[in-house]
């Protein structure tokens, strides 16, 4: 945990622009992967990229990926540490995009951009049931709120959802905020509070479009959740799984012993195994 904390602190910076650049530089390590190809596109002025496996793959099934970063940082470049694994483990194309970030663009800017990316896929001719929506941390929040927005609009929902260490409760009430506070090498309460202040502003924290844990999950598609047991957002995932099941939704959660927040970004066997489990879930529900 100390080693992971040291690596994480290396890219942290009080200057938000430098912090974002450090993350992009870290993500650029994956640009040279021979297993995938990257294609930059623009979606109505929003930068995005396709990540495609260099082998025969499913052309009519796609993953829409929402990166994390506390709503303040992150990009499709930083997310390559996950999107490349997703593309290779599933043999599906992955679309990741740069939604607008706080504090320059607070709520609901990020949610508007997620919906824009969804609409783009529909414009390309994908059906809702051809799409898996996945995301990590704040991106996991956006995965859930996208479906809430689609439900609100009476639209068809994606085939399934994958939430990696999702941030579901901005009231910070989960027990793990106390029980994991000393051992979490990545997140801290101060970081989460600063992200809330940047993103939410004066909005009500229990608004389901801000804290989806308070949402009505009836009618949701199948959901797969992965979380490490050494992170303060552990109970955000546990409570989400319980609420989904209570609403009659097919939900599965895997809690990875000794792992930290979004450990799937790391280049080691357990991270690749976790991505293979995501692929198994997708194959199961996609038929």
TrEMBL record:
Limits of the Alpha/beta hydrolase fold-3 domain: 63-264
Pfam families reported in the protein's UniProt record: Abhydrolase_3
Active site as annotated: 137
GO molecular function, one term: triacylglycerol lipase activity
Entry coiled-coil feature ranges: none
Keywords: Hydrolase
InterPro entries linked to this entry: AB_hydrolase_3 (IPR013094), AB_hydrolase_fold (IPR029058), GDXG_lipolytic_enzyme (IPR050300), Lipase_GDXG_put_SER_AS (IPR033140)
Similarity annotation: Belongs to the 'GDXG' lipolytic enzyme family.
Name the record gives this protein: Acetyl esterase/lipase
Organism (species): Anaerobium acetethylicum
Lineage of source species: Bacteria, Bacillati, Bacillota, Clostridia, Lachnospirales
């Amino acid at each position: 945990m100390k080693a992971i904390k040291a690596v994480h602190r290396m890219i942290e910076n009080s200057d938000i622009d430098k912090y974002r650049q450090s993350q992009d530089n870290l993500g650029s390590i994956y640009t040279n992967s021979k297993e995938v190809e990257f294609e930059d596109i623009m979606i109505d002025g929003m930068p995005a990229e396709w990540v495609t496996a260099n082998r025969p793959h499913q052309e009519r099934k796609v993953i829409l990926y929402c990166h994390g970063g506390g709503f303040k940082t992150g990009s499709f470049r930083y997310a390559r540490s996950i999107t490349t694994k997703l593309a290779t483990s599933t043999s599906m194309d992955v679309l990741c995009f740069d939604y607008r970030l706080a504090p320059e663009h607070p709520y609901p800017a990020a949610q508007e951009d997620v919906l824009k990316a969804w609409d783009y896929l529909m414009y390309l001719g994908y059906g809702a049931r051809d799409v898996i929506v996945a995301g990590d941390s704040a991106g996991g929040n956006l995965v859930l709120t996208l479906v809430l927005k689609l439900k609100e609009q009476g639209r068809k929902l994606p085939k399934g959802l994958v939430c990696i260490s999702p941030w579901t409760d901005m009231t910070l009430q989960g027990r793990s905020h106390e029980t994991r506070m000393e051992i979490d090498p990545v997140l801290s309460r101060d970081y989460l509070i600063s992200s809330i202040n940047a993103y939410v502003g004066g909005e009500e924290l229990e608004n389901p479009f801000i804290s989806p844990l308070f949402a009505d999950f009836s009618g949701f598609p199948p959901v797969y959740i992965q979380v490490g047991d050494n992170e303060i957002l552990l109970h955000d995932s546990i409570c989400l799984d319980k609420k989904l099941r209570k609403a009659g939704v097919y939900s599965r959660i895997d809690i990875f012993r000794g792992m930290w927040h979004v450990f799937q970004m790391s280049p080691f066997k357990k991270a690749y195994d976790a991505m293979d489990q995501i692929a198994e879930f997708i194959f199961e529900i996609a038929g």
